[in-house]
Each structure stands twice: as C-alpha cells, then as structure tokens.
Design goal:
Number of strands: 15
Shape: globular
Order of helices and strands: EHEHHHHHEEEEHEHEHHEHEHEHHEEEEH
Number of helices: 15
Distance between the termini: 54 Å
Bound molecules: iron/sulfur cluster
Strand order of the largest sheet: 5-6-7-8-9-10-11-12-13-14-15
C-alpha cells in the first residue's frame, strides 16, 4: 500500500506580513520602502515555496526570481515614484489623496491591452457574457470567478489590473450557465482555455464545478480543455501533497475520461523554476492522468533575456515530458518599460536558443506578440538591398483568413511592440488595419461576436 505523505499547507506573504520573510531583513530601510511604494500600484503577493525554494537570497535584488515576484523600484518612472513616496512619507496629505495618485498611475499604464475588455467579450441574448473572451474562432477563454488570483503575483504580469481591486478592471465569470449556453450555440469552438489569474488556485470542488458542465454531451464539438497555470512553478505541491491534491487530480482526470484532450498550459519564466524535484513529481502526476503539458513565457528583461536560459529551460522541459509551446513578447501594459525587450533582441534570443536545442524542443513558437489583430510572430530579420525588415506573420488572428499570411515592417532596433513598427515597402498600413477598423465600426468580423 502506498505510504500517505505528510500534507503541506500553503502560506502566502503580502505587504501585511512582510516581516515574516526573514531574508528581507537583509534589505536596507530604503530598499524596503521602495518595495512598499511600488507595491501600492502593482499587486504584490508571494508564498513560502517561492521564498524558500526559488529565490537565491544571496543575490538580491538582481536574482531573477526576486525580480519576478517582488516589486522593483524601476517599475515606476521617477516622477511617479516620487509623487507616491512623498505622499506615503506623509508630506502630501490623506490616504484618499494617496489612493488618487495610485489610481492615476494605474490608469496611465494601459490596464487592458489589445482590446481585451471591449473587443473580445461575446454576447448572448444581446448582453455581454461576463468573464468570457472569444477572440479566435476555435478558442474561447473562461475566467472563473474563484480563479482570479494567483499563488504569487508576477511583477511583469499583463493581467496585473485584475488583481488591484478596482471594480471596473475586474474580469471574471460568476457562473458557468451563460458560457455553456454560448458554447452550445457556437459549434466552431473546439477549445476552451480556463484562465485567470491562475485557475489552479481553485480547490477541487470549484475545479469540478467549472469542468463538469464542459463535459456535457451536448458540447461534443468541444474537444480540448486547456488550463493556463503557473502552479507548477509557484505551488507544485498542489498536485503532490497539498491536502486536496488527490481530489484535484481526480477532478482534472474527468476531462480525459470524457474523451477530451486536457492541456495544461504551464507558465515557466526561468529554468530555476524547474529545478525543485517536486516540480518533476507534479508534472508526472498530471501526465499519469492523461494531461499534456505545454509551456510558455514571455521574454522579460531582468528575468530571462538570455538565450542560454531559454535553451536550458526548453531542454529541461522536454526531459520532463513537456512540450515547449510559446515564447511571447512582454505586453504593452503595466511596468513594461522596465521589463520589455526590443523585438530585434527577442528574435535573436529565440534564434540563438532554438538552434542549440534538439528538434523535440523546437516546437516553441515565437517571439509572438498578442496584439489587437492576433498573435504576431517575428519570423525573421531580412535584408533586401541595403535595407533591413522584420518578417512577420499572424499565427492566430481575429479573422482566420489572416493566419499565416506574411507581412513586413521596417527594421527598428528599439521597437518593443507592433504599434511601433512602420509598414515596409512604402505601405501606409498593414493589410489587416482596414478590416479591423471596419469591424470596429460595424460590430462584425470577429470584433464583437453575437
Ligand atoms: S501567475 Fe500568471 S496571471 Fe498570475 S501574476 Fe503570474 S503571469 Fe500573471
């Protein structure tokens, strides 16, 4: 008989119990204050596993996992930081005024990029469906209400706005009913991505409540259920010795038992996150129930902007039976001035890393920007005559006719996002721009779905 393991409990840290992170006592008072200032704007939460197992405390503040989970001074511009710091030091009035400064800064940081709030939300019976996005024909995203937080928050996260407590920036579904009705009316949807936050913060009972309605025989056209999660990196105990671990695995296994594909879209940002032996154990347990693990991450300055790290990460993932899936570009939101890597550099990192790994790891696509028209991949940098160009293509698009169509932009070594690229060969705009405008005006072409 298998021996019962000792259960472990999840312990989190926020600004309220920072003192319990003993290693933080090494910080100077000024460093500690900076952390507290920046954490007024960006969400901050970490946990004992990250603090004890992943961060190299002999190397802070440069340590990549420290950069990944602890707010950094450089995430705010000097003027923003100084305004906030003055207000916090008491030089600038009440907590209401402080909150006003915080909100002003938050709203200036493009909290919902790529039209997430206004362009991707579908309608049912003439009303928008809360907590659902449908951007690409075959895939719908579902944001369960109970999954809109994470085991720890990533400093670079493009969904940071969901975690900061401003009501109108929250995005989540209170129940499954309307989503299931929408799915029934849309046989073109083959994939549902359950996402967050991190849906794997949910306990087994909640996971079951989300998954079981999707297994309804009337949803036969739904073939793949994907779960976007960072839990394998931030809380692998979830699948091993958390008090609820067996029930969680059982809830997930129902997808496979119902004849559907269970895809765990695992977020790993740095090879160190794959080192603890419990990560391999958690991955194995998911694979035993039939899940396929695919991996993704953006390229992030201060964290993983080095081809050697990507090589190492992809090699280790393949060794653990995971499939490298996406290298993303850091999105145009939040503290992106601190984290963004120029597109040209991101492409070089991808190219250098991918050419050094075996074919099994060359499944990773990218670098890809999740932009308004779709997922734009940088395929290469080409030289024609004496001029350089970015060669681009949409690997996913609002209009499926745009998929795989190559297009070109003038080379710009500093550009960090699609909207900073000028079309090449004398064009005034890219081929999808006029259709996007038309879609916005008429409410068609996959921009607002009915
Ligand atoms: S775990 Fe994912 S959703 Fe949560 S903060 Fe990190 S990147 Fe964002």
């Amino acid at each position: 008989m298998a021996q019962k393991r000792t259960e472990v409990r999840f312990k989190q840290y926020t600004l309220n119990n920072l003192d319990e992170i003993f290693q933080l006592q090494e910080l100077t008072a000024e460093q500690r204050f900076e952390l507290e200032v920046v954490a007024q704007v960006f969400p901050f939460k970490t946990n004992q596993f990250v603090v004890d197992e992943l961060i190299d405390w002999s190397n802070i503040p440069a340590d990549p996992i420290y950069q990944l989970t602890f707010p950094q001074r450089g995430m705010l511009h000097d003027d923003e930081f100084n305004r906030l710091a003055d207000a916090m030091r008491g030089g600038n009035g009440t907590s209401k005024q402080l909150q006003q400064i915080v909100n002003e800064i938050r709203y200036s940081l493009n909290p919902h990029p790529a039209g997430q709030m206004d362009m991707n939300v579908p309608e049912l019976d003439g009303e928008k469906i809360e907590g659902v996005q449908h951007k690409y024909d075959e895939t719908a995203l579902f944001f369960p209400q109970a999954g809109q937080t994470c085991h720890a928050y990533c400093t670079f996260c493009f969904r940071w706005a969901q975690f900061v407590g401003i009501d109108e920036l929250r995005f989540s579904a209170p129940s499954m009913d309307r989503f299931v009705r929408y799915l029934k009316a849309h046989p073109e949807i083959t994939d549902v991505l359950i996402t967050g936050g991190d849906p794997m913060v949910m306990n087994s009972k909640m996971i079951r409540k989300v998954i079981e309605p999707l297994l309804d025989p009337a949803l036969e056209h739904l073939r793949n259920i994907r779960i976007g999660t960072k839990s394998l990196a931030y809380w692998p105990h979830k699948y091993v010795d958390d008090p609820d671990a067996e029930e969680v695995l059982d809830a997930l296994s129902r997808v496979v038992k119902a004849g559907k594909h269970l895809a765990v879209m695992a977020h790993f940002n740095h090879p160190r996150e794959l080192e603890p032996p419990i990560v391999a154990e958690a991955a194995k347990r998911l694979q035993v129930i039939g899940a396929v693990l695919r991996t993704q991450s953006p390229v992030i300055r201060h964290i993983n902007d080095d081809p050697g790290l990507w090589e190492e990460m992809w090699r280790r993932q393949v060794q653990l039976g995971m499939i490298p899936y996406y290298m993303f570009v850091e999105r145009d939101t939040g503290a992106r001035d601190y984290f963004a890597v120029p597109l040209a550099r991101a492409y070089e990192i991808y190219r250098e890393a991918i050419r050094n790994v075996s074919g099994l790891a060359r499944t990773a696509r990218g670098p890809s920007m999740s932009a308004t028209p779709g997922k734009v991949e940088i395929q290469g940098i080409a030289e024609v005559g004496n001029e350089k160009f970015f060669v681009l293509r949409l690997i996913q698009a609002r209009n499926s006719e745009w998929v795989q169509r190559p297009f070109f932009a003038r080379y710009d070594p500093d550009a960090t996002w699609l909207n900073q690229l000028s079309p090449a060969f004398g064009e005034s705009e890219q081929f999808f721009h006029s259709q996007l405008r038309k879609g916005e005006l008429e409410g068609i072409s996959g921009v607002t779905r009915m």
